[in-house]
Design brief:
Blueprint (H helix, E strand, L loop, with lengths): L18 H8 L14 H16 L4 E5 L5 E3 L2 E2 L6 H7 L10 E6 L5 E7 L8 H5 L5 H4 L5 H8 L2 E4 L3 H6 L7 E3 L5 H16 L6 H24 L6 H23 L1 H7 L2 H16 L2 E2 L4 E4 L20 E6 L1 E2 L8 E6 L6 H19 L7 H18 L9 H5 L44 E4 L2 E4 L13 E4 L2 E6 L2 E4 L8 H13 L1
Parallel strand pairs: 1-7, 5-6
Antiparallel strand pairs: 1-4, 2-3, 4-5, 8-11, 9-10, 10-12, 13-16, 14-15, 16-17
Helix pairs in contact: 8-9, 10-12, 10-16, 11-12, 13-14
The structure holds glycine and manganese (II) ion (MN) (2 copies).
The site of one manganese (II) ion has 5 residues, from loops.
Organism: Knoellia koreensis
Family: Belongs to the peptidase M24B family.
Cofactor: Mn(2+)
Length: 510
């Protein structure tokens, strides 16, 4: 809500500002052209999501902050990204409206009015216009007016300064719930206000106060859980955004493929790969949806290798796990494992083909009626079969024994992660859904999930065949559950070892 306490405010570069200078800066600006001329396409879908939220919490005031700017160092902020629940319920995408708060204000008839509190455009006669380095128009650009936001999003707009009073005006009578992790400062202030409001009426003991705080946290958790689960079935607009994200991601992968010889020749090749993908992501969309994993050789066996500091050598595989986040913040999450010189070695191909077979089994399990966990079960069985064939499971442990959840699981030495997760505005979407709603739930049309088995043989893994050591492979696709099965949204990106080799030849010949 306020300028972060962490942010330093050095005086050593401050300069005096006279009234004459203020007046001079305030004059002779051309009239502003309207920033917004029509409602966004996303607004209609966001309204339907807010209706679902309203129906679930009649009579409650619901507070969904965008979150604030985050300090990168000293007085320099990261590019702003709103909280995913805020983006989902407003349709506001990328670098928009730090500190804004969506409030679902209860009405007597059980519905809610959607009100967006934000910091609107400041006049050119204000100090903020030229002197506020964090929010001023001279420094970070113009913001929308209240009228702009009301037209763009179809919600009521209010100045952020009105929020603090409005949110707690009747906190003793109305249940106020907040998405706690979106804006820690705001949540702390709201906690204080809510607790004070409900405990000042009578002399209340400390035990009662802490019970009240637990109640608050529980009420907030119910809201967070609802909003996370609300994203599980994608509407037609979200599916279209995901298609755009996947199409842009394909362009990023093809730019990397075109540059593989360059990445090898230049040295520090992982950085080159990360940079080339990032350039396309920034050009085609908002940027990358998560830090790209550009992992060559043995680095591919480190699951979250985002340092990308290594070499890419002729003969290496490069595992590229990357996704473009489009302007609406929906992101793809795709992995291809590519031979740097265009051709898999025998050992690389053997591992790659095993992972491909596991992915095919996982994909075949993506259909309504199957459970989410069936996808992993199908893929991991194929992984286990290959490990058994290669003689890597312990003596006396066969496929069924390693798949035993209580006493087996030896295969996890080589594939420790799950095969799937939901995907959307967050790369790991719907993270607060319960096990019953997620892992144990039936797949339903409109869900989008990844299918991403892998095999990872570390260079120092003495249980692995020597030829396999230092090879990591993952193949990851983004899949939409349909009425009668699934659609692989990333099917245009080749997957078999032969098709990947042909793809590299084709792209590099362009
Ligand atoms: N890129 C993160 C994941 O695949 O889950
Ligand atoms: Mn993934
Ligand atoms: Mn991934």
């Amino acid at each position: 809500m306020n300028v972060s306490e962490e942010q330093q405010k050095p005086e050593n570069r401050a300069r005096p500002t006279t009234d004459e200078l203020r007046a001079f800066i305030a004059e002779d600006w051309a009239p502003r052209t309207p920033g917004v001329t029509e409602q966004t396409e996303a607004a209609r879908y966001a309204a339907a999501r807010r209706d679902a939220l309203s129906a679930a919490f009649p009579g409650d005031r619901l507070v969904i902050p965008a979150g604030g700017l985050k300090v990168r160092s000293n007085d320099t902020d990261y590019v702003f990204r709103p909280h995913s629940a805020f983006a989902h319920l407003t349709g506001l995408g990328g670098d928009r409206e730090p500190d804004a708060v969506l409030v679902m204000e209860p009405r007597d008839d059980g519905t809610h009015e959607a009100v967006l509190y934000f910091r609107p455009l400041a006049g050119r006669d204000t100090d903020e216009f030229f002197a506020d380095t964090r929010y001023g128009e001279f420094w970070v650009g113009a913001r929308p007016t209240i009228e702009d936001i009301e037209l763009e999003l179809g919600v009521s707009g209010r100045h952020l300064d009105e929020f603090a009073d409005a949110v707690v005006k009747d906190a003793g009578e109305v249940t106020v719930r907040v998405v706690r992790d979106a804006d820690r400062d705001l949540t702390r202030q709201l906690d204080e206000a809510r607790t004070t409001e409900s405990t000042t009426q009578a002399g209340v003991s400390e035990a009662t106060q802490s019970a009240d705080q637990e109640d608050l946290a529980e009420a907030d958790d119910e809201l967070a859980h609802f909003l996370s689960h609300l994203r599980m079935i994608k509407d037609e607009w979200e599916i279209e955004e995901m298609r755009k994200a996947v199409a842009a991601t394909r362009l990023g992968f093809e730019a990397v493929i075109a540059d593989l010889p360059e990445a090898v020749a230049k040295g520090r090749g992982e950085r080159w790969v990360e940079g080339v993908f990032g350039l396309v992501a920034r050009h085609e969309g908002n940027g990358v949806g998560y830090d790209s994993i550009a992992a060559a050789g043995d680095h591919a066996t480190t699951l979250h290798w985002i340092k990308n500091t290594g070499e890419l050598r002729d003969g290496d595989l490069i595992l590229l796990d990357a996704g473009v986040e489009v302007d609406s913040l929906f992101t793809a999450d795709i992995t291809r494992t590519l031979p740097a010189n265009g051709t898999f070695s025998d050992a690389q191909r053997e591992i790659y083909d095993a992972v491909y077979a596991a992915q095919e089994a996982g994909l075949a399990a993506v259909k309504p009626g199957n459970k989410f966990s069936d996808v992993h079960a199908a893929a991991i069985r194929v992984i286990a079969e290959h490990l058994e064939k290669w003689g890597l499971l312990p003596d006396g442990v066969d496929v069924e024994a390693t798949l035993d959840k209580e006493h087996g699981q030896y295969h996890r030495r080589w594939m420790v992660h799950g095969t799937s997760h939901h995907l959307g505005i967050d790369v790991h979407d719907c993270a607060l859904a319960t096990r019953e709603e997620y892992m144990d739930a039936e797949l339903k049309p409109g869900m989008i999930l990844t299918v991403e088995p892998g095999l990872y043989f570390k260079a120092d893994d003495l249980k692995a065949p020597e030829a396999f050591r230092g090879i990591g492979v993952r193949i990851e696709d983004d899949v939409l559950v349909t009425e009668d099965g699934h659609e692989n949204l990333s099917a245009a990106m080749p997957r078999t070892s032969a098709d990947v080799e042909a793809w590299i030849r084709e792209v590099q010949a362009r």
